[in-house]
Amino acid sequence: MNxxxxxxxxxxxxxxxxxxxxxxxxxxxxLVHLMITEAGWQVxxxxxxxxxxxxxxxxxxxxxxxxxxxxHYWTLRDFSCPAASGSYRCDGMAVVPCSMGTLSGLAHAASxxxxxxxxxxxxxxxxxxxxxxxxxxLHAIHLENMLxxxxxxxxxxxxxxxxxxxxxxxxxxxxxxVGKVLDSLDIDHALFRRWGD
Length: 197
What we know:
Layout: E1 4-9, H1 15-27, E2 31-36, H2 38-48, H3 55-64, E3 71-74, E4 92-98, H4 100-107, H5 114-124, E5 128-133, H6 140-152, E6 155-156, H7 170-184
Parallel strand pairs: 1-2, 1-4, 2-3, 4-5, 5-6
Enzyme class: transferase
Organism: Brevibacillus fulvus
Binding site for dimethylallyl phosphate: 164, 180
């Protein structure tokens, strides 16, 4: 069954995780509401080598082209996004990667932009919210914010790839983390070999 999933990509290192998640969701036929922070756009440029001057065109070329009607891109000030309302039946949200600044905003229900508002809606409605922090080392405030969010119902899935499936490529490592996010959203996938398979 196709789902409606919100995806936030922030300025933490590891933008490729968010991109791969969106690609996999679209490939499996799910509807995606995508939000990208300003720092997230910078990481696209720095880590992926993407030219980000024309953002809407970049989204069309890199993600939307093969999946017409499935991907909706929203700027952080466009609160007309359906996922910003609890009355919209969004099946879940993932923030991949999740910067410590965004994590702090979420832990304190700041709702200072669309991404934070959508995540807050997931928590208040008791829906799935998956956060993928990508920071090291972590200090006590980072850990306190993660604990607060976990106690509120968020799932914390750090970008820590496993090695028991004997990865051979960078893609194998990326797919492991993205697969764990999909598991947390209850979405079937075959991105990595499971223990015992």
